[in-house]
Amino acid sequence: xxxxxxxxxxxxxLAILIAEILIAKYLHDAFIRPxxxxxxxxxxxxxFFRIFIKMNYKKLAFSVLIFSxxxxxxxxxxxxxxxxxxxxxxxxxxxxTYFTFYDLLAYFVGYLICxxxxx
Length: 119
Description:
Elements: E1 2-3, H1 7-26, H2 32-52, E2 53-54, H3 57-76, H4 79-83, H5 89-95, H6 101-114
Antiparallel strand pairs: 1-2
Helix pairs in contact: 1-2, 2-3, 2-6, 3-6
């Protein structure tokens, strides 16, 4: 692993960030917001790290997947309440408030997309 700056992943990160903000603000459907947003968040995190870190893309993608699974597991024990953010809409949305197996599937799909970014 070494530090770097990758403008390609900066643009990918910014594009996905804008898409995530638009999804959160304007979409209130039963599929794209809950599933598509979770797929994209894995790619967003992956792209963020690829801006600054050059390392094996498979290891990084897998690390992001494991991180996502851990966050989802924490949602099962309502960690947002532990942190005192249960009444804060912004942090509750960012951190997530409930566990679902569909989110794990969405994260795995995001992981598969990350594996497409080989360089």
